[in-house]
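User: Can you recover a sequence for this backbone? Please restate the input before giving your answer.

Assistant: Of course. Working from this structure:
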């Protein structure tokens, strides 16, 4: 794993962004770009290769393609595929480094020993990984796409800072994982990852215990012991985060959103959403829609 590290004092520069959707048969062209590409997959599996590496990127996973390196598809995606992408580059006066996990560990241990976590003033971008809170990332991508389609009313820097907020969220996600408590059993991390990918399924403690060959009470106890979270509440949190992303897009009804996130009862979904977010799914959608309307106000030009 390679990590790109650069300081926040030199904002990363936005170039363009988009949302790619294929109903099947997608195969990425071979090319070499002089800027970076960030890809976040929401559906299906993307098969991308770079010089010396091949990546399999599925739902809630991301990939960063480095400037100057050739990248290409190495396998056809037969099923539906959907992903967001953004192109960016680093300013010429922006110091940066690329390092492996060992060098990164030394860098972080040194920085964290001399300053608190909120003293870190850099982006740390893994070349690939998984996003646990997809809702936040989808909101940021939606905002960036909206800004890319309108003439800036306030400042052209808005879209650049929108990109930087997205990459800061990525850094925050990585640091949360890096600083997670040591000694967590591998099966607990595996179960968490399984839930993040399979939250649409009818997940219960009994189902997970049977799937992973544990006693239900023991699984609930050990999950709470090592994560500090109730197992079923973790499932709900994962589903609600996914629902927030779907609600932000505005493409599905409340009922369809509930079903897409693993809830067979719309009323139960609304009740869980309200408990976790302090508002109903409909209220959340209206709040997000108001932000989109503000972003899409027409621009009146004067000569």
């Amino acid at each position: 794993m390679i990590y790109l590290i650069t300081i926040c004092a030199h904002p990363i520069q936005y170039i363009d962004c988009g949302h790619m959707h294929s109903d099947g048969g997608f195969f990425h062209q071979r090319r070499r770009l002089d800027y970076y590409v960030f890809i976040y997959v929401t559906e299906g599996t993307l098969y991308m290769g770079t010089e010396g590496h091949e990546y399999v990127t599925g739902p809630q996973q991301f990939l960063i393609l480095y400037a100057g390196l050739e990248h290409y598809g190495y396998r056809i995606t037969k099923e539906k595929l959907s992903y967001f992408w953004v192109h960016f580059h680093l300013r010429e006066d922006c110091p940066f480094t690329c390092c492996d996990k060992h060098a990164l560990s030394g860098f972080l241990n040194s920085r964290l020993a001399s300053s608190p976590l909120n003293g870190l003033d850099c982006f740390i971008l893994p070349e690939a990984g998984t996003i646990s809170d997809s809702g936040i990332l989808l909101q940021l991508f939606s905002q960036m796409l909206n800004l890319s389609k309108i003439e800036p009313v306030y400042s052209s820097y808005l879209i650049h800072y929108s990109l930087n907020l997205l990459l800061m969220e990525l850094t925050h996600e990585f640091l949360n994982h890096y600083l997670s408590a040591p000694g967590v059993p591998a099966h607990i991390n595996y179960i968490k990852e399984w839930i993040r990918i399979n939250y649409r399924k009818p997940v219960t403690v009994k189902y997970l215990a049977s799937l992973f060959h544990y006693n239900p009470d023991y699984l609930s106890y050990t999950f709470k012991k090592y994560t500090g979270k109730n197992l079923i509440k973790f499932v709900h949190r994962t589903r609600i985060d996914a629902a927030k992303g779907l609600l932000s897009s505005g493409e599905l009804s409340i009922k369809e959103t509930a079903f897409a996130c693993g809830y067979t009862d719309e009323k139960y979904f609304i009740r869980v959403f309200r408990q976790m977010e302090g508002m109903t799914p409909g209220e959340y959608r209206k709040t997000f829609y108001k932000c989109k309307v503000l972003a899409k106000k027409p621009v009146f030009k004067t000569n």
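That completes the design. The longest strand covers residues 13-22.
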